[in-house]
Structure formats: C-alpha cells, structure tokens
# Entry
Amino acid sequence: MADRATTESWLSKLTNLPTASGREDAVITWARAWAQRRSDLKVTTDTGGNLLITQKGRRTRPAVVAVAHMDHPAFVVASVDGRDASYEFRGGVRPEYFEGARVEFVTTQSVVKGWVVTHDPKTATGLIRATGTGVVRPGDVARWSFSKRRPRAGQFSAPACDDLAGCAAALAALDRARDRPGLRHFGVLLTRAEEIGFIGAIHAAKAGTISNDTRLLSIEASRASLQAPVGAGPVIRVGDASTVFDQEMTNQISWAAAARGLPHQRQLMAGGSCEATAFGVYGYRAAGLCLPLSNYHNMGNLGEVEAGTGRATAMPETIALGDFHALVDLLLLAAEAVDGEGSLRPKLDRLYAGTGHLLKPRPVP
# Structure
C-alpha cells in the first residue's frame, strides 16, 4: 500500500500531464501503466476509450466504482501554418482569459511557448502564435502558461487538478482497497470528454461498460465557495446545477463520515453539473464527491472578473493536500457505507412510535 508521499507523487504527475477532451492520451497511458504494474488488477478499455480498472477475483456484493474524468479545458491544434496554429478550445472558460494570453504547446518532443492572437467565443476557435522553438502538429494540446508560484503550506497547485486530482484520489483508494478483502468490489472508471458534456460517461452508460447494479461515486474538483472552502475537507455533494443525487447513498456516506469523524463538508455545489447527473439520467445509482478548488478552470481572480473589478489572469488550479488525502479515505469509507442503512424511514418510524400518542384527540370539555 502506497504512503502519502507516494500518492502525492501520483497527484503531481497526473495533474501536470497535457490533456483535453478527446486528447486524453497521456493520462490514459499513465493510468494504464499504473494498473498493469499490479497483477491483481484488470484494465478494460470500452469502445469509447474509457478505462475501467477492477480487482481480479470473486466479489460478494455489487460493485462500487469511483468515477473521475481524464480531460481538462485546453486548446487542441487543428492546423499549423508556419508559426501560427489554429485551435479549437474544448471546455468552459470565460472569453476575458484568452486575449493575449500566454500558452504552451505540450508535444511529444518538447514544450513550445506561444500566445493567443485571436479567439472567437462563439465558436471557441482562434489562433496561437508560437514564440519558442519546436515542432507543433495538428492534434497537439496547448494549455495556459503560468508564472511559477510556490503554493501556501498544505496546498497543491498544478495545471489540471480538475479532474486529474480526482483520478489520482481514485487510484490511491484502489491501491489501498487491494489490501482489504472486504473491498474487492471497489473499482475505478476513468472517463473521457467530460468537459464538453459528459460524453465519456454517457458512452459508458449506453455501452454497458458497467453493470446495472453498480453504485457510482462521481468525483469532481469543483469551484470553492464561502460555503465550501478549500481546506475544510472533501465535499459530499448533495447535487449539482442540474439535479440532486441518490438520496440513500448520500445519506449513507454522510452518516458514515460523521460517525468516523472524517473531515468533510456536505453541500449542493450548484455551480455546474457533473457525471453523477449523467449516470442518474441513465438509471444508475450515483453519489457525488468533490475537492474544493481555487482558480477553477485556471481562471484566476474569477470572482473579481465576474464582478467586473478584476483582471483575467490564468493561474494554476489549487487544492488542499489535506482535502485530497481525506477524499481517499472518504472513497474507501463510502465503498463500505453504501451497503449499510441509508433510509431515514426507520428513524422517523421510531420517532413516531415514541411520540405519536401526543396526537391523540383530547376529550372536549
């Protein structure tokens, strides 16, 4: 079982890999190699390129699968003309962040610096001009280029915590589950193209990548707020902007976390939607967990920009390491808890049995 330093090294490696919707190749290669080094794990690639990693051997109860997506908002090169590369931006970022922004192409050969010359917010396309040496080809991924900053003590910053920190947490939990016979039913699903509409998750649901009785723990890195700050623990997500999640699973996880004294928050997180919504629509039982995130989608000063008082500056995404490690613990706890009591009805029945007599009509004087 890996220690904290090792899991933090996985976090660092994954969140620094270049990735975009439909161009998750580097993450897929890393995750596949990680799993293949463990002889007791099985890796299955579905017809959409999603990775399902499960434990070999017989399990005695329906699967619990942690789901995280492998893409992040980024530029994908469409064509190259000399030092100019036309691009398609895949993901949600406000248009203020593109004008003259510094970027870097992360190719198989090198990192090539550049800057955004044009951006059309209606089509999410534009032009980047390379300023550094190196060869850029169609299909390459470009991402924001940041000034190096040292994160505060206890925090972690990287180009793509959303959702590669979720991928790292899911794999760390699976690594620990391998040593616990009672968690043989725990697995991981790493999906593609979430940032353009949960495409990988929808494919997994439609293609039957996971069995119908699978319980899903959908992981995200979501924009922090005053109600869900960075450093106060991972969030048990009641729902998102589109829907609420499985009531019983949410209760089971919440009660188990409270009983164990595990740091956590319980919030709606209605700033966006996540893959739990997609799986729920297609008939799966899904709960949501997330890491509170600063500089969501690399949009630094986002609150001030939305208010019209700040400068749009691309920044690394930031999470708290304590939240990350607590999320690993929470995933393992959730895998056990979802087979426990989750209905409020027995509690309400007991309450009624003890005090229902107070409702009996009193004789009229």
